[in-house]
Structure formats: structure tokens, C-alpha cells
Write a structure and sequence with these properties.
Layout: E1 8-12, H1 17-27, E2 36-41, H2 44-54, H3 62-66, E3 73-77, H4 83-90, E4 95-98, H5 105-110, H6 112-132, E5 139-145, H7 154-172, E6 177-183, H8 193-202, E7 207-209, E8 215-217, H9 221-234, E9 240-243, E10 247-249, H10 250-258, E11 265-267, E12 279-281, H11 283-286, E13 289-292, E14 295-298, E15 319-320, H12 328-337, H13 339-348
Helix pairs in contact: 1-9, 4-6, 6-7, 8-10
Length: about 350
């Protein structure tokens, strides 16, 4: 049987970029047809927009709004930072995807405790609710980021602790499988380089690059969801799934987007909390990282959670975006492959690709 067949699925932060793609993929039934999909978030405007879109683009009527909880896809106002809010939502769930996060690096630097309350307090509230109320949750998936690996900014630090909270939760809640996924830069997501570069090109330049040495992993939102689904299917308790994806030099991305336009590039210097390279597996983690299908899998740091039949480690060092970057031919092919997805994302942000 498929892992989500007839399951009640809760997505925290489900109105975000990842949450919306995750909902779309869940509705296809590729992991089985859920009994219910519940989107939990604080943003009623985004919830309303999603409700209207997913309910067959029907007109906004009382039936659409007030029959919310009779639909396969339901929406719930709530906040992972509030224990009673998340505890109530968890009572109606079998599987939880925790996508709620403060994820903009500058925002987290200027409001660090807000990041702590969402990125650490939220996961702890999920675990505490399951433990204290003996909730029969089957699986909790924590969505993390490359910035959690060897973190140098508040966003990464808080996400790193989220990972550890969920790993240790396997001891606190033995009836629930807590797992995680960690991935890098998502093509055309809010705050990533491609929307920024397009905006700068439309304005006549210059394109700003913090350092000519900078590299980034490149994956689509669908590949991020692929990683989540692979973890749901195959991950053991406490494991973290890492997609094996290509990387590129940011200067090459800028050059290909500029093309033959008379646009200059400017080196501005590293911003606070910014890394030159994305790292998905650290030197410490590589010794307990194995290959499984198209993914690297980090075994849990706690020996009490780790599986007894652990395999031999695959990596000999860290897994960095600086390793084996694509040349411009391969990068061009990748950008063309994802062109429609990039255009759709830019259109949603009011920036049509030219």
C-alpha cells in the first residue's frame, strides 16, 4: 500500500512556495490518495487564494468558504509557535510535513529570536504535543536547508537545532517516525538569485554578485518534493535525506541570463551571514552518510536512534556546491529544462521572463 493512502496529512506553512507544490503533488495521489490534506498557516489571504484555486477554480461562494472542512483539501488558521494551536491541529493528522519557517537570512539576522520561536519553538511544540497527548502520529517530516550544515547565520543555526529536535524526538515519542530532508537553493524561489538577476536586468543593471567565487546547488521545487516523498517512502527513524543535484558558479548563471544585453556585473562583497558555497553534508556528517537510490542519507547522530545494520559511509569529505560545478553548456541545458517553471514563478512574483 502507498504510504499516504487514506492518511490525514497536515502541512504546516502550507501556503509557502514549497507547501503549494507539495499540496499539488499530494493531490495527484502518487503516494496514495490521502483522506484529508490540511494546510495550516497564519496567512488567511494566501489560504483563501489557495482554496479558490484548488477547489476547481470555482467562484467564491458561501459553499466554497463554509464547506471548507468537508473537502479533501482543508485550510486551518494556526501557528506552530502556539502550542495549543498546533496541538489541536495534530489531533486530526496521521502524517505531518513541517514546512513552517522563517527562512530569509537577513530577516533572521535582524530578528533572531523570532527565528528561534518559529524554527525551533515550532518543532518543539509539535514533538511536545505528540508526547504529552500520546497522539498516534505515524510520521513527521522536518524540512531543513543547506544553511543548517556548518551554520554561519541565524536561519541556519535555528534550522540545525530543528533537525536535532526531530532526531531526538524519536526517543521521546517511540510510536512516531521523525525524519528530515535538507536541500539547497531552489530555482526561482523567493529570495534566490534568478528572480533577483531578472529584476536587475529589467532595470538595466548592474547585476550584483557578492563574490566571483560563489557557487550554488540548483534544484526545482518538484525535486525538493521528490526528496520529501523519497524520505516518506524509505527513511528510517532519525535519517536526513539529501538530494544529489548539480551546482553552478553564480557568475555563470548571471552571464547566461544577461546574454548579449549591455548589462554590467558588480562585485559587492559577502553579505552578513552569507556563505561562498552551499554545503549539504559536513565533514563530521560524511562518516555516517550513505547512498540510497538518488540521495545521500545522513544517519542520526544519536546511537540510540541509529539502525543496527548501518552501512559503510559513502562520502570521504563534505558535500559542497564547489565540487564539480557545471560548465556553461550543461547550465544552459538545465535552465532551458526548467524554463517554464522559472517563468511561472517569476510571473507569480510580478516579473515576467523576457
Amino acid at each position: 500500500m502507498q504510504p499516504l493512502e487514506n492518511k490525514r496529512v497536515l502541512i504546516t506553512g502550507g501556503t509557502g512556495s514549497l507547501g503549494q507544490v507539495l499540496v499539488r503533488r499530494l493531490l495527484t495521489g502518487e503516494l496514495g490518495t490521502p483522506r484529508k490534506i490540511i494546510v495550516l498557516s497564519r496567512d488567511e489571504a494566501k489560504q483563501h487564494a489557495m482554496r479558490v484555486e484548488y477547489l476547481h477554480k470555482r467562484a467564491v461562494t458561501d459553499e466554497v468558504i463554509y464547506r471548507n472542512f468537508q473537502q479533501l483539501l482543508a485550510f486551518r488558521i494556526g501557528d506552530v509557535r502556539d502550542f495549543h494551536s498546533i496541538a489541536s491541529a495534530l489531533r486530526d493528522a496521521d502524517v505531518v510535513f513541517n514546512a513552517a519557517a522563517l527562512k530569509q537570512v537577513p530577516t533572521c539576522e535582524y530578528f533572531p529570536f523570532e527565528a528561534v520561536m518559529t524554527n525551533i519553538g515550532g518543532p518543539e511544540n509539535i514533538v511536545r504535543a505528540i508526547q504529552e497527548h500520546s497522539l498516534p502520529i505515524e510520521t513527521v517530516v522536518g524540512v531543513s536547508t543547506d544553511k543548517a550544515c556548518k551554520p554561519v547565520n541565524v536561519m541556519g543555526m535555528t534550522k540545525a537545532i530543528q533537525e536535532r529536535v526531530f532526531i531526538q524526538a524519536n526517543m521521546r515519542c517511540p510510536g512516531t517516525r521523525f525524519i528530515a530532508v535538507r536541500y539547497g537553493n531552489v530555482l526561482a524561489s523567493r529570495g534566490s538569485v534568478i528572480p533577483l538577476f531578472h529584476d536587475q536586468i529589467r532595470s538595466g543593471g548592474p547585476i550584483t554578485i557578492t563574490t566571483s567565487e560563489m557557487t550554488r546547488f540548483l534544484l526545482s521545487l518538484d525535486q525538493a518534493v521528490d526528496t520529501i516523498f523519497a524520505a516518506v517512502r524509505d527513511a528510517r527513524r532519525g535519517e536526513t535525506y539529501i538530494p544529489r543535484v548539480p551546482s553552478a558558479n553564480v557568475t555563470d548563471i548571471a552571464a547566461l541570463l544577461i546574454g548579449d544585453r549591455p548589462i554590467q556585473t558588480t562585485i559587492t562583497g559577502i553579505r552578513p551571514g552569507e556563505k561562498v558555497h552551499e554545503i549539504l553534508v559536513s565533514e563530521e556528517e560524511c562518516h555516517r552518510t550513505i547512498a540510497r537510490d538518488a540521495y545521500y542519507v545522513i544517519q542520526p547522530i544519536l546511537p540510540e536512534v541509529r539502525a543496527a545494520d548501518e552501512k559503510i559511509a559513502t562520502l570521504k569529505g563534505e558535500y559542497s556546491s564547489a565540487d564539480g560545478t557545471m560548465d556553461r553548456v550543461a547550465l544552459t541545458a538545465l535552465l532551458r529544462q526548467h524554463r517554464l517553471m522559472i517563468e511561472d514563478a517569476l510571473f507569480e512574483q510580478g516579473e515576467m521572463l523576457r
